[in-house]
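ok trying this again, last paste got cut off
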Amino acid sequence: MTLEDLYRQHRMRLVRLAILLVDDPATAEDVVQEAFTGLHRNWGGLRDGAAAVGYLRTAVVNGSRSVLRRRKTAREYQPPHLTTARSAESLAMLTAEHQAVVSALGQLPPRQREVLVLRYYGGLSEQEIAESTGISRGTVKSTASRALDALQKVLKG
C-alpha cells in the first residue's frame, strides 16, 4: 500500500474525526494534512499499512489536542498593560482638578489604579471589578481603600 492509497482511503474518515475534535472543518483539514506529512517523513520506518493507519489516527488526535491547547491559550492571553502618554489636546480639555486626579492615578501601583478606574470611571460594582481583574471581592475592597488613601496623599503632596 502506498501513501497515496492511504490518503485516498482514510483521509475523509480522519477529517471527520478531526472535525468532531476541533469543531472547525478548515482546521480539521490542516490537522489531517499535518498527520499525512508526518507519515511521509517517517514512511521508511513503518512496519506495515495497519501501523500507518494507527500512526495517522494518533497523529490526528494529538494534532487536535494541540489546536485546542493553542485556542485556550489564545483566549486566556491578556496583553500587558501599556501606559500611554496623554495628548496635549486631551489634557487641555480637562479641568485643572481633573488633570491633578489623572496625574495622581498615574502614580499609583497598577492594581490600585485599575480598581479605582473601574469603580469610579467605569461604574462597576465590587463584584464586577473582582471578575474583571481576577481578584477576590475582599481584595477589591481593601485595594480600593488603600488606593483612595494613596490618591489623597498624592493630591495633598
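PB: full thing came through this time. The longest helix spans residues 49-76.
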